[in-house]
Amino acid sequence: MTVEEWLGEENQLGTDIWEKKYCNEGESFEEWIERVSGGNTEIAGYIRQKKFLFGGRILSNRGLHEQGRKVTYSNCYVVDPPEDNIESIFDCAKKLARTYSYGGGCGVDISKLSPRGAKINNAAKETSGSVSFMELYSLVTALIGQNGRRGALMISIDCSHPDVEEFIDLKTDLEKVTKANISVRVHEDFMEAVKKNEDYLLHYTREATGEVIERTVNARDLFRRIAETNWDYAEPGALFWDRIEGWNLLSNTKDFSYAGVNPCAEEPLPAGGSCLLGSINLSEFVQNPFTDHAQFDFEGLRHCVDISVRALNEVLDEGLPLHPLKEQQDSVAKWRQIGLGIMGLADCLIKLGLTYGEEDAVAMCDNIGFAMADSAIAASALLAKEKGPFDACNTEEIMSTPYFQANTTEKTRELTRKYGLRNSQLLTIAPTGTLSTMLGISGGIEPVYANYYERKTESLHGTDVYYKVYTKIAESYMKQHGIKSDSDLPDYFVTAMTLDYRQRIDMQSVWQTHIDASISSTVNVPNRFTVEETENLYLYAYEKGLKGITIFRDGCKRIGILNTSESKEKESKKISAGEGLKRGEILLVTDDVVGKKRKLTTGCGSLHCIALFDPHTGALLETYLSKGSTGGCNNFMVGLSRMISISARGGIDIETIVDQLNSSGSCPSYTARRVSRKDTSKGACCPMAVGNALMDMYNEMQDELAERRGAGSEKTAKKIEKAPKPKAVNTEAETDKMYCPECGEPLVFEEGCNICKCCGWSKCH
User: Fold this and answer.
1) At residue 565, does pLDDT exceed 60?
2) In this structure, are strands 753-755 and 748-750 parallel, antiparallel, or unpaired?
3) Is there a contact between 522 and 751 (Cβ–Cβ < 8 Å)?
4) Helix (H, G, I), strand (E, B), or coil: what is residue 217?
5) Which element (helix H / strand E) includes 238?
6) Is 171 among the domain residues?
7) The domain containing residue 688 runs over which residues?
8) Over the stretch 421-476, which tens digit does the pLDDT of each residue have?
9) 112, 127 Cβ separation under 8 angstroms
10) Whole-model pTM?
């Protein structure tokens, strides 16, 4: 079998994703299957049938340690929360760096750190607070590369911590802690105080000095602050911590506690904890799809769960020595967490003719979820029979948990009673954005985001032409029923933006009943969604027993983070100085150019940037760079400015030039100065700072030209009329979108991840 046969000859996007993300140095599809399956023929069969896929780290990394590569198979870790001393705080940063270098994402909780103003016995006299160290952890995340990617980080804090308000407000500054997700651990006593409109005590006792810091706030005001910030910035998320601690296989195990959650919050884990991921594609278990005789293959699902649990345990054993830190190896050996999840749920329901969020769909999910949980527990018990239970297994404590009792048949209980369990954690629902996009299915438990996407192409005459590309499930239905327009699709083809939020939460709630870990969850809501509705959504999520929730409101200010400046500009028509030049021709610069200047502060000192623009089109023509008295290497600056200038005069547009400059990476001296003095220009190194300055001056130039077009003389207007006109990006319709940094097409936000349906680019936040 070839990858084209596996994914479909027409699925070029899926093939591109496989080649870029998972294929190792030109290996064939069959070689890849052999590598990622580890020789397990049954799991290889399920992969070939597209019924199961391991998580991305396993698909890309399994077996590569034999080539001397430092890799891990785990997507996610939770680092031991830092203690309230400087050594522990920086030890935590070191652990993050080492874990990122192996390709793992991390979660860290900062609730043990002293709040701002606490007395300390050093030169500072009082602490800058727990929140002040978040920038350190964010910078570590930005610095450590992962084969072209950055690390992923989740930072959490308890709702009773005196710094919680500062924590909530932190990311309203779009320049701060840009490399981390943040969430608040919310407790039942706080939520009850919210409902009763009562006061709530924020408190912290510093062990080193015995100092007690307490402050009373109105619970409803604090809750509204969380909701309002989430409405506007898509953060912080809420972690309903008592539900997390109380609904799992270890809730009655006295020597166990969760230390935090992973970056997408689907994996609560102990200190040093790690989890291996895999997902079952539910849409492939529907028999006779799109017909009145459609039914779900429960027996087939149970067998697939059994084989998947065994395969993930094989990966766990193989990858045990590959974890970056000794404490991670010890934790995994002791608790043996795996995370089997699902994808393609929305497609599955459509094939069954069920409407996502309606009662019959919720009932079907209840049945599927129970079958998964019962089968997974039984499979783990049978593995314990063969290989022994996990080291810390206490069977009586496990069987007494509310989760176990609600999710097992008598047969499974008997197996567990006899043999214990091989794993302390079995099920999770992680983001499957890239995997599901590769297969052409819906992700996780999410509804279909849209039935079609608009693609743009440019005709021979330079005119933008838009056309519809239907999602695979819609296209399959339309072909089978001879439908030509999406307007003729049945009512059960609902999408994320048409659902009532209660339906979305009802679906997550029924799945959470059967998932012992958690669910990566971002509820997409339209721009018109209000703060009051956000509060109601959070309250409803709490009442329905969710473990965590956040929202993403279309057009919220978070797009200022997610939408890079260069990706926004790519949506405009590119303006270059040398339009129409033949290869090798260089444009001569006349004397009527418009000059602009910026002074930059870099890691080495100061840098002066002068840019010359075409007075009619605003296209970049030349750049001059010179260091200040304390700047860096002047010869380097001269060389860089010459290369920028000749590129611009050779017809390369500024967006492409800046994109190259922004790919330069991070400079340690730049990072150090940003932390110590906080006065550096935007960027992570000198070339990046230059690129940002050039784009800033270019935008300023375009604004000036736009003003002249609106108020200039007839003569000026005629002169400008001949110039290429950039497509405006100031309308609400344009700025409320996110754009892919690879291809410039609009992104969608699913399961906490930005996903491009055109080129497959993805990033989780």
Assistant:
1) no
2) antiparallel
3) yes
4) strand
5) strand 237-240
6) no
7) 573-726
8) 999 999 999 989 889 999 999 999 999 988 888 766 554 444 556 667 788 999 99
9) no
10) 0.78
